[in-house]
Amino acid sequence: MIIDKLYKFVEERGPVCVGLDTSIHYIPEEFIKKHKDEYSALFEFNRSIIDATYDISACYKVQIAYYEALGVEGLKVYKETLKYIKEKGLIAICDIKRSDISSTARMYAKAHFEGDFEGDFITLNPYMGLDSVEEYLNYVKEKEKGIFLLLKTSNKGSSDIQMMKLENGRRVYEQVGDLFNKVAEEYKGECGYSSIGFVVGCTDTKEASIIRERYKDSFFLIPGYGVQGGTSEDVRRLMKGKNGGVVNSSRGILLAYKKYGDDFDVAARKEVLRMREEILNGI
Ligand SMILES: O=c1ccn([C@@H]2O[C@H](COP(=O)(O)O)[C@@H](O)[C@H]2O)c(=O)[nH]1
What we know:
Helix content: 40-55%
Mean pLDDT: 97
GO molecular function: orotidine-5'-phosphate decarboxylase activity
InterPro entries: Aldolase_TIM (IPR013785), OMPdecase_type-2 (IPR011995), OMPdeCOase_dom (IPR001754), RibuloseP-bd_barrel (IPR011060)
Radius of gyration: 18 Å
Number of strands: 8
Structural class: alpha/beta
Order of helices and strands: HEHHEHHEHEHEHHEHEHEHHH
Keywords: Decarboxylase, Lyase, Pyrimidine biosynthesis
Shape: globular
Catalytic activity: orotidine 5'-phosphate + H(+) = UMP + CO2
Strand order of the largest sheet: 1-2-3-4-5-6-7-8
Largest sheet: 8 strands, parallel, barrel
Bound molecules: ligand LLZGTKA7
Distance between the termini: 27 Å
CATH topology: TIM Barrel
Active site: 97
């Protein structure tokens, strides 16, 4: 199961997930000038970040929106970045947040679990229900793939719907979490976690411990650290020890050169080390 590989990397390298939400505007101008065009600079920037951080990071989360926004040329960079991660034996989480009826979901599964845009894990929005996720499950069982389902997101608006109380007393996110937790049981690896995990933002201090307590055996992808305001203390409420999840930081790592004044790859490494130390020290 792919979760066993991720768990092993978390144990060996720490829980940091490097977010490759790479905007052209984040790349230093001198670096862009050294390359044929913006797209090759974009790929080389990603490659340098990966080379500088792979031995101290659990995985890479590649946010497709940043590449889609650049059209076909951007998607080629997305593809090349995923290929590079795979060639180095690392783990890619494709942050695509798809959700659709099953016939369309089948196509999304094909697009992101095989072919040009293949990754190890994908993110899905499960709020369309069980049948919107079913088409992906065969890949989890047979092709060493994994899924992170949005549960309680890091944005302020997550309280608009996800926190609503239903007549049965549960919150909407609990209804969704309980439903998919049962499904996840069938995809457990040797590490005890399932290849179907949840996305839980670390920006809701109050709800974090409740979520961890309710989903004791789930592996979490945790965004919201740093720029969005989540702290290491918030992360620890969700982590369940040192290896119950991975903690994403995108802008905090990609733009670390502005904070440290070093070359961007050197600064990215410094920031991953700082973040890892800050999170693990309190556990
Ligand atoms: O609840 C969620 C789910 C996904 N994200 C994604 O994580 C990164 C966060 O980027 P930062 O620069 O570290 O804030 C981004 O790709 C989001 O789309 C999230 O933030 N919250």
